[in-house]
Amino acid sequence: MATLRKNRHLTGWLLASPLALVLGLFLVLPIAMIVIVSFWGATEFSIYPAFQFDNYEFLFGSPVTYSVFLNTFKYAAITWAFTLVIGFTVAYFLAFHVRSLTWQIALFLLCTIPFWTSNIIRMISWIPFLGRNGIANSTLISWGVIDEPLDWLLFSDFSVILAFVHLYTLFMVVPIFNTMMRIDRSLIEAAYDAGATGFQTLTNVIIPLCKPGIMIGSIFVVTLVMGDFITVRFMSGSQSANVGRLISNDIGLLQYPSAAATAVVLLVTVLIVIAILLRFVDIRKEL
Amino acid sequence: MTDKTAAGLSRRSLLKGAAAGVAASAFPAPMIWAQNIKDITLRQFGTGVSNLNEVAQKVKEDLGFTLEMTALDSDAVTQRAATQPKSFDIADIEYWICKKVWPTGNLQAMDTSKIANYDKIVGIFRDGKLTPDSTIAQGTAPHTVGFTSGPGGTDFVAEESGWMTLIPTIYNADTLGIRPDLIGRPIESWTELLNPEFKGKASILDISSIGIMDAAMVCEAMGEVQYGDKGNMTREEIDKTMAIFTEAKKAGQFRAFWKTFDESVNLMASGEVVIQSMWSPAITAVKSRGIPCVYQPLKEGYRSWGGGIGLSANLSGLALDAAYEYINWYLSGWVGGFLMRQGYYSAVPETSKNFMTENEWGYWFEGKPATDTITNPQGQAMAQAGETRDGGSFQDRMGAVACWNAVMDENQYMVRKWNEFIAA
User: What domain of life does the UniProt record list for this protein's source (chain B) (predicted)?
Assistant: First the structure.
């Protein structure tokens, strides 16, 4: 009996260990490393182990940090709002308006086609389109809508958010579509039978039942936007900054400890945002 | 018992190894050199300008060994040279990067007595003077970081000590690039970069150590800031410079900032930008698309840069011999001619002359009108007969250097201020 129990313990440990090992090596260890390095010191060309708060002191003491974090939140919030509205609409259309499963799958695959090319290519292809002499401006001029090319189309917050929305809407569509497909159609019929209008059905039945999908999509979009640096760099013509760019600048200048400190603060911020999001929906329960 | 055996074995193999080592160093056997050199692979990395596949091919043909090249941007080059000394054999870096990297001891000093053309190297890299009566420009002038006290030295010495940190390979004088067709009037001064006339159509490069120099050239030309040394600014000078540029940025002067070569080409070629900091081959790239673009000489002078190759401290034995062989080959003319036909200068121009036509030498080096179409090494036309080079001859251009690319004592402060400028 005792040996059996021992064996069961052993089996349990053995079964858990591969995952624990993978997570430990590839998640916990790197993050621990980043936290440790964030307390180190740096000279111009080297870093040295230490335990000092200089990096954090400088980070929290600089007005740039606050404006950059604010900018990052701004991008995240606006992108989130747009991807949510567009993503929800697309998912709703796919789930409730397209009746045949074949078409649903076909149209869903259509949505993913842009993802067959690289992220960066999809983003950069906006540049010639939006430029001063780009397709958008020349079309508008030839239509007589504008006389002068619009400069704010490219290298502005507009182009940054446009690229974000373009890149990340699918991450909203997929989970919302998934939850919508699981909604029992008889619930909607019941709502109609009870005399609810289409809008009432949407707000009282469909949206509450889609919450987990919306939440998962939101987590994707918010974390992707907050962690991005390359989109902001290219689409703003290097003129705007977000936290990712602060980190990449520091790395470029060999200031690893300072980059690590910024990364830690960003990580904590994103975790707080996700914790707040999770307060609204218990994903575990809903799934 | 087993432990004892193990210890005995390892001691014995250690002795064997040591004996072999002594034997090898006592008889360096030059006759096997020719065969072995074919097996040698030297790993070179550096900025895109001189990391050219043509050079690697020619090395294989002329010298027999393999040269592997990796091109990176200047931040990444600095990073790699400073932190990953084992990842390269030859570092192709700029002199200001050398100032940062040399003190780490990752590079080894080079014995100038092994450099055949040492005496023919241009004065800029030796005593700092192009001609005996020229003044030395501000910034990290190459000769100030070109020599060290001896083998193993991690310091810099002022005189020609016989131990070089980098062997100069390539250098040029940089200025602003303009689109003459979209500007339509002569441009003569650095101040034009911040001229409100070009609001939303100007750009500057987002590599702090070089961008700050261009910014300083502009502020000094405007008369807004007087610098003791633009290559080594005080905190106050940095603050003033960045304040002027931040104000301009907020007023919408800049269309974008660029960090890579192709970004600068696209900005200029698409007409997004009509005046910007630019590098010479970028001008060529714009021109080769049939778009007019001028590397405009300005009255305040040029911002200049120079690069050289340094040897990794890990190089020794046959690989080190091969590296010296490579350096001597580099200075012997073929590469120089190849680079000069792209608009750069070679450290030993006179050897390059043999590898260029009279027309090419006249156009690129002497500033004479071309007598026939000038093509680059890839065969693209760069200039038609009758045209002269922007800025004129070697003496005119390199003699009008106002400042060398530099790394400042207040570098960290400057970088922070630069980041604030980008985020503003």
Answer: Bacteria
B47 and chain A: CB distance < 8 Å anywhere? no
The ipTM value here is 0.78
Q: How far apart are the first and last CA of chain A?
A: 38
CATH of the domain at A93: 1.10.3720.10
Which CATH architecture best describes the domain B176-300+393-423? 3-Layer(aba) Sandwich (3.40)
| Each residue's pLDDT tens digit, A136-174 | 999 999 998 888 888 899 999 999 999 999 999 999 999
| Cβ contact A96:A179 at 8 Å | no
Candidates B204, B213, B75, B421; CA nearest to A241 is: B421
Would residue A2 count as lying in a domain?
Answer: no
> Alpha carbon of B352 to those of B331, B335, B336, B364: distances in Å?
8, 8, 5, 12
List C-alpha distances in Å: B24 to A21, B11, B41, B321: 47, 20, 21, 15
The domain spans of chain B are 31-173+305-355, 176-300+393-423
Chain B residues in contact with A74 (beta carbon < 8 A): none
- Written in H, E and C, the secondary structure of B195-218 is CHHHCCCEEEECCHHHHHHHHHHH
Could you tell me if residue A104 is inside a domain?
A: yes
* pLDDT of the residue at B284: 82
* Of residues A44, A237, A245, nearest to B411 (C-beta): A44
Is the pLDDT reported for residue B3 higher than 60? no
> Rounded to an integer, what is the distance from CA A216 to the centroid of its chain?
10
Q: Give CA–CA dist B199/B212, Å, rounded.
A: 20
Decide: B276 and B201 in contact? Cβ < 8 Å. Answer: no
As given in the structure block, the two tokens for residue B104 are: 């780490």
Pairing mode of beta strands B90-94, B41-47: parallel
B420 touching A (Cβ < 8 Å): yes
**B141 Ramachandran zone, left/alpha/beta (phi>0; psi -120 to 50):** beta
| pTM higher than 0.90 | no
Please, how many CA atoms are within 13 Å of residue B257, restricted to the half-sphere of its CB? 26
User: Which one of A131, A240, A246 has the shortest CB-CB distance to B272?
Assistant: A131
Compute φ and ψ for A234, nearest 5 degrees: -75, -45
The three state secondary structure string of B89-119 is CEEEEEHHHHHHHHHHCCEECEEHHHCCCHH
pLDDT tens column, B318-344: 899 999 999 999 999 999 999 898 889
For residue B11, what pLDDT is reported? 47
User: Rounded CA gap, B67 and B53, in Å?
Assistant: 9
Q: Do domains B31-173+305-355 and B176-300+393-423 have the same CATH topology?
A: yes
The CATH architecture that domain B31-173+305-355 belongs to is 3-Layer(aba) Sandwich (3.40)
Distance from B205 to chain A by nearest Cα, in Å?
10
Please write the tens of the pLDDT for every residue from A203-214: 999 999 999 999
Name which of B101, B259, B411 is nearest A238 (Cβ-Cβ): B259
SS3 B392: coil
| Residue A22 maps to a domain | no
Domain count within chain A: 1
Which tens digit of pLDDT belongs to each residue from A68-110? Answer: 999 999 999 999 999 999 999 999 999 999 888 899 999 988 8
pLDDT tens by residue, B131-165: 887 888 898 899 999 999 988 888 999 888 999 99
Q: Which domain holds residue A79?
A: 64-286
